[in-house]
Specification:
This protein is an alpha/beta fold and 354 residues long. The chain is built from 10 helices and 18 strands. Helix 4 crosses helix 9.
């Protein structure tokens, strides 16, 4: 049997190809029938500027090389299991932690599978979920709580990135937090910071549609960096101290220095945005004030936490979902995102015809 899959062949070259359906899963693998799959900024970046995270030759862990079916943020239903998984059977609704891991390196053995020495991701280092079916490792399967519908479950992966960034920043009840950027990761960090008990959550965002959405979702105040001195404004609103935590969610190198100089003395900067650019770190703004700068990559057992938070109605991630396309219109969805000026946060693709 065949199916259609949206595959990356090279920079600017996405194709809806006819491919074979997955065969029976090998031990340690599962086949999932896809319900919804989100287009990530990483996917768009690969389309515009790749290859970045996609290897042009065989991946050292999977052996896969382009073309590759994109899609790593998805929900679906298990149709076959190559190995038993406690609590998950054929028919179980699941999302998948898409981090591929070797299981034997120092980082995997210490529970830091997301920074595995050979690691990769479903949808980048192996075929992903922009297709009716996807094969994934069983260790990544996470049962979807009954109270969470498939479309919201597909948002768990990007929400987990924001939650992980807040955890890396050790946001405490009563903290003041500044988030640079109100794209999907910035909005996810906004949700997570509020859940962590932050007293003030300030957002810097130049795109009007995204700034308005951040305000609607509970930001204490949103600033347009084109017309406001964000550093000064947040400094004044925090008793002339500065924010306890700054989360950089854009990947723009110029904002790294702003994050460092804006956080309070003894505060924490979390770099959650990914970029190929080089940033300037002002050492004289870090050492004398004992500021901490940390990186935050993806998630580490954060996806189950997000699903439970959605199930318990601790927050409503629905506003993150700004559009749905059938997979057959996937090329049009990428074109819309490529031309978009911030109106969209998360577009979901579905193999079902709408």
């Amino acid at each position: 049997m065949g199916m259609r899959a949206l595959r990356w062949h090279g920079r600017g070259d996405l194709r809806l190809d006819d491919v074979a359906e997955p065969g029976p899963p090998e031990p340690g693998q599962a086949v999932v029938e896809v319900a919804f799959s989100g287009i990530c900024g990483t996917d768009l970046h690969e389309f515009r500027h790749g290859p970045n995270l996609i290897r042009t030759g065989p991946h050292p862990l999977t052996g896969h090389e382009p073309p590759v079916t994109l899609g790593h943020e998805f929900s679906g239903r298990v149709t076959a299991l190559g190995s038993p998984v406690p609590g998950i059977d054929v028919g179980t609704r699941v999302v998948a932690d898409p981090c591929l891991r070797c299981g034997v390196c120092r980082w995997c053995r210490h529970g830091e599978y997301h920074i595995c020495a050979k690691g990769g991701s479903v949808g980048l280092a192996s075929d992903g979920a922009f297709a009716p079916y996807v094969t994934v490792p069983v260790e990544g399967l996470v049962r979807i709580p009954d109270a969470v519908p498939d479309d919201l479950a597909a948002l768990a992966e990007p929400l987990a990135v924001g939650l992980h960034a807040v955890r890396r920043g050790t946001v405490q009840p009563g903290d003041n937090v500044l988030i640079l950027g109100a794209g999907p990761i910035g909005v996810a960090a906004l949700f997570a910071a509020k859940l962590a008990g932050a007293a003030g959550v300030y957002v810097s965002e130049p795109v009007t549609a995204r700034a308005e959405r951040a305000a609607e979702l509970g930001a204490s105040e949103v600033f347009d960096p084109a017309s406001a001195d964000v550093r000064r404004e947040v400094f004044l609103r925090t008793g002339r101290v500065g924010p306890d935590v700054v989360i950089e969610a854009t990947g723009l190198p110029a904002l790294v220095e702003l994050a460092v100089t804006t956080v309070r003395r003894g505060g924490r900067v979390v770099l959650a945005g990914i970029s190929g650019g080089a940033a300037s770190l002002p050492i004289n703004q870090i050492v004398p004030f004992e500021r901490t700068v940390v990186g935050s990559l993806g998630y580490n057992f954060d996806i189950p936490r997000v699903l439970d938070l959605i199930a318990e109605k601790r927050f409503d991630p629905g506003p993150l979902h700004t559009g749905t396309y059938p997979l057959s219109d996937g090329l049009a969805a990428f074109a819309e995102l490529d031309a978009d000026r911030g109106g969209h946060l998360k577009i979901l693709l579905t193999p079902k015809e709408l």
